[in-house]
Design goal:
Helices cover 55% and strands 18% of the residues. A hairpin with a 2-residue loop joins strand 1 and strand 2. The radius of gyration is 12 Å and the shape is globular. The relative contact order is 0.17. It is of the alpha+beta class.
Length: 77
């Protein structure tokens, strides 16, 4: 199945920013946030902070996809 990325706005460090992910990744990200009992913005902000500390040159969208793959492999989503 082919999906085109769609942009969604999230709040990071008090500022709105857009992230483009395929719909399947957005659904998985929302499911993970719900599983963890927090908002989508809070989850993305945490992942973004980890990215910024490790390697800020890597795109947020890439880091989100890899995190979701990792969580899926662990059976969390």
């Amino acid at each position: 199945m082919i999906e085109r990325p769609t942009k969604h706005s999230v709040t990071l460090r008090g500022h709105r920013t857009s992230v483009s992910l395929e719909p399947s990744f957005w659904e998985a990200l929302k499911a993970l946030a719900q599983t963890e009992g927090r908002s989508l913005d809070a989850l993305v902000a945490e992942i973004d902070a980890e990215r910024a500390a490790a390697d800020p040159t890597v795109s947020l969208a890439s880091v989100l996809r890899v995190r979701l793959l990792s969580e899926a492999r662990r059976g969390r989503i």
